[in-house]
Amino acid sequence: MSDVSVQEPAKSPPPERKGEAREEGNRWAAYLPTIKTTVAAVVLALLIGALLIIFSTPRVIESLKYFFSYPWDFFKFAGIAVWDGYTALVKGSVGSWNSIERTLERAAPLICAGLGVSLAFRSGLFNIGAQGQMLAGAIAAGYVGFHFDFPPGLHLLLAAVAAIAAGAVWGGIAGWLKAATGAHEVISTIMLNYVARFLMIYLLGKELFQRPNSNDRLSPPPAESATFPQVFGVHTGVLLAFLAALGVWWLLERSTTGFEMRAVGANPSAAATAGMHVQRTYFLAMALAGALAGLAAVMQILGQQDSLTENVAGTVGFDAITVALLGRATTLGPVLGGLLFGALSSGGLAMQAAAGVPPELAQVLQALIVLFVAAPALVRGVLRVKAEGDGGTVLAKGWGG
Amino acid sequence: MKLEMRGLTRRFGSFTANDHIDLTIEPGEIHCLLGENGAGKSTLMNMLYGLLEPTEGEILVDGEPADFDTPGDAIAAGIGMVHQHFMLVPVFTVAENVMLGREQTRGLGILDRGKAAELVRELSTRYKLAVDPTALVENLPVGVQQRVEIIKALANEAKVLILDEPTAVLTPQEIDELMDIMRALKKQGTSIVFITHKLREVKAVGDKITVIRRGKVVGTASPDAPEAELAEMMVGRAVNLTVGKEPPKVGKPVLEVNGVTVVDDRGTTVVRDVSFDARGGEVLGIAGVQGNGQTELIKSLLGIIRPDAGKVLLEGQDISRHGPKDSLEAGIGYIPEDRAHDGYVSSFSVRENLVLDLYRRNDFSRGAALKLDAIEKNAKARIEEFDIRTENMNSSLASLSGGNQQKVVVAREFSRPLKVLIASQPTRGVDVGSIEFIHKRIIEERDRGTAVIIVSTELDEIYALSDRIAVMYDGRIVGTVTPDIPREQIGLLMAGAHDGHETQAHETQGGAA
Amino acid sequence: MSTTATATAAPETQPTRIRERSDVHRQIRLVVTFAIATALCIFFALAVDDPNVRYILGERVTKEFQPKDLNGSWVAWLAVAVSAVALVLAAVNRFPRGAAGVVLGVLVGLMFYLGFLMWVYADQGEGFTAAITNPIPGTIRIATPLVLGALAGVLCERAGVINIAIEGQFLAGAFFAAIAASLAFQPYTGLLGGILAGVGIAALLGVFALRYQVNQVVLGVVLVALASGLTSFLLGQIPGDPDVKQYFNEPPTLPQLRIPGLADIPVVGAALFDQTVLVYLMYLSVALVTFLLYQTRWGLRVRSVGEHPKAADTVGIKVNRTRWQAVLLGGVFAGLGGAYYTVGSTGAFDRDVSAGTGFIALAAVIMGRWHPLGATAAAVFFGFMLNLQTQISFVDKLPSELLGAVPYLATIIAVAGFVGRVRPPAADGEPYVKS
């Protein structure tokens, strides 16, 4: 018996390269299998989630005790539990204007940070450091936001620029370390996440950052003049997230710098031979990724007007990685992925409130979705979906080198 | 042991790599499998060795059907294989590599390295294959690594030994030695399948020749058939084995290399004080066995690695501190030896690869923005001009054949005015049609007055193109000769035997020319 | 025209010997490091008014271990002297290589540490004075899960499978160790639960990495998210009612087992040999993994599939089967490491109880250059740093929040400055697909 059943034809393009080989005309056709498997992955994840809901509902567990004498109860209660949970999830994410607002506001930082992670991926770098970069951005945005007094508009601009710059610096450190010493970015970004966290904790204990008359590690909220105005209940910063996606798309697909980044990401030695500066590109990509994570912090501090705490970034920085993976090697992907996860996160809250399902379920669902998206063969096997081609995730493999 | 293949077929999707191949290997014969790159020889052997499953057909050992699902089955049946790309773990010792898969143990799965080393020593004396069992494979020259591969196969008591393109990495002398080893093995009853595309070798050692073209057996021949006939069978049409070219109109030195020395990361001096010059309108061939510093020399000329000493002058200007970007912009064209590694980005489209080092030029970008129209127009023109066989310009390079991938690289480098063209192994792994085409374009470039440097380990290629030949051995240029000297003498230079043969090599002076 | 000029200069006429770049880099790195160390040591020696410190040989003050007084200034100046000697040796490029270099380097590090301690613990003023305590017991405790996790990483990556999910294995191991121990009222069944959970996550890693060839860095990150989410979710399902909770998340913890004789060695004895069974399992695991990888048939095969899977395949080794074995065996160690966080220390499972230490174990794998002994050394180093941070947070000399970042900064410096471009197993992270 052979070890591996998958065998690649020698002369046909490896499937994961599919994304590159599309013509304008059949562009959407090329995406179709991707969309199919993604939808299938979401469905599969929801099925597993349903099992978790069922076995975490006390009434259902109770009914198991007399399952053999009265099985109908089990199925009834299970059905009710799943129905309640998932309707709450849908209602809480897109069921009303209110929930759409919340979904959008939650999606915005995910999109920004996800774009950052994705940009680094395209350049051949695994940026696990969006969390730390966000914290750095949050510190800067918060500091400028509550500490200074500028006219509205200008204040917002300065605070946002400060956050983006701080994020860029934090990301740039990892990029510089990689370029100058070869330190692997997976390690350095993970470590920088912790460093940023301790920096935040330290600063929040200082007079400069701590909310007056408070002993908690909590800063004042940003000044009104440094926050995004609200339109229809959504802060206008959300628009920036979509603009950022457009910008990243232009950079990667239409500019010389993006050409370099993609070349370096796909084959650094060919890029170097073609006269590109591989190390400089690494630095630039990490700095830009950090800047985008900084923008994610802008969404939270200056958009949702969060105060600084050590948990201000929540799990956005890590979810950003999954968002980027879900989005594969496209620019539209992280936007859709961010919206999906934003919906899951806002719906997850509603699920807890309405159906008593723990919010961690949303996290489990996210991980499952990404896992299934990354293994299209598995999804097809389980759901018997037929797809003529599949798009694996185009990413650098291994530790690089 | 008699080995038969009946109707062996292998398809990859719609592509048929092997189409109903029938082949019989009689005991104790050297059976040559002749075919050009991409003809399907390796696919066939991989099926025979259990690495690929046949789509159709069967394999018979001594008349009995055999089912080789894994290489383990093939090994057990007495088949040994020396792969074109050595299947050796670089960080293991020779003994560890030989024992891998059939480890000598002291029981309980604990390794007995001493016993393994003993076996290596025994085989190495019996077959006169000198190797040190305790040496790390990564520190051994390729010729010795090949010996390790052969010992590995013999340690498994192979009765049929498959040698897949074994001579590509050897000097002419080493090739002769290998042929002696093959004859000795044959005398001891081992049959040998010798896969190659080199006619001379087939004629020297083969008992029987089977020619494969496009996945099909096109015929058999005896070793005394004339070369032209074999070549025609192999390619499917009459082949002109020589490149038509006029005598060169040699101009002034364009690229002067002075005392270049390169020390690699591990602290070994890989290029030692190399000086030469390349002159306009002339092809300078750099011959030598793989791994004698050619790779590093060329990379240092281009600034991909910095020379640790010495100067490189392009039209009198020192470019030894340049990076590749400046060198390319100063008018050096570069065809790298490992095109998949350095020459193109396989996930990029043909269109993008055709501007991989040109995108910075004003023709293809304005400020930070790429000029997509110009890039597309360029792609159309190059695909046409260089006859690049691709579905369309947006196909990824990974979907092209080796010859067409190389044509993309060549087309790109020829699409700007050059002062110097450096081509490393320009036709490695490329089909005969593409070889002829690429050779023709290189000579055209020479006749335009460009200084051309060709690095090749294939002496045929060196002879076909060069107006002057420099031979590298152990990081040094050990002689510069003209293509009218006999192959044996170049062979001696390539093997580092220059000290005893200085007169033949006509060494006249040291230092810069 | 049959001859042209050649250029063959004999090597002995070469005027200057070319110095290897790596040698130059090494010298620069050493000089910079020791210069900083010397400068800091001088600072430690000078910036002290009252050099008297107190120390104990045990971990805390007991009848056996009474605080003793020590004049710290001679220690501080000795540290200056040692680092200055190292600086001079590095400056003239005479710093020894090989074992002597390692010994000298460790000596400099040790003296730097002592000099630093003198500075930190001096000048505490009136009232309660914190004493310098023996760092070894704490280091061993903190290092135990790190070492086990790092061994898991080494095993996986030597076989060519990148394992970033060590943190996920820790979390799952910790959770199910707590459950298993609570259910059985028995800490040792907790170890079994931990092992099963670690192997479970390893199996997921195997399925997706080997069967479905998912990118392994991605996979690791996702598995950590999954394990974190799942354990938190399940933890939320355990009722708060103490009557029920005790069956799920109130595990008994592992008792300390004193090894007679060995535990009586002064200073280090109790630290090394009066520990829980988990610590002894850790010692055994290090020896076992090293032996397995380098002295057995299985180890040779594992390393061959991590370096050159095709070569292994061509000699009849089942590449993916071998990788599966290594990944699953790794899961055993990682699961044990996870069990430390519940039954091995505090008992009950809490959200994200391993607090990112799985990633530190990963860093140890890389810093240890994919060798079990190297990874162990790196993990012990991290354990030491984390322990140091807790110890000196009792003294107000440095802000403890910033001290928290020190182990992570140290990792960055170590990876950037001393490890740099490391060479992972050649096929690490590459799924093996037959051509």
UniProtKB/TrEMBL annotation, chain B:
Q: Which InterPro entries does the UniProt record give?
A: AAA+_ATPase, ABC_carbohydrate_import_ATPase, ABC_transporter-like_ATP-bd, ABC_transporter-like_CS, P-loop_NTPase
Gene Ontology cellular-component annotations: plasma membrane
Q: How does it sit in the membrane?
A: Peripheral membrane protein
Q: Which UniProt keywords apply?
A: ATP-binding, Cell membrane, Membrane, Nucleotide-binding, Repeat, Translocase, Transport
> Where does it reside?
Cell membrane
The ABC transporter domain extends over: 3-239, 255-499
Q: Name one Pfam family in it.
A: ABC_tran
Where does the UniProt entry say this protein principally localizes? membrane
Query: Does the record's keyword annotation contain Transcription regulation?
Result: no
Q: Which GO terms describe its molecular function?
A: ATP binding; ATP hydrolysis activity
Q: What is this protein called?
A: ABC transporter domain-containing protein
Question: Source species, please?
Answer: uncultured Nocardioidaceae bacterium
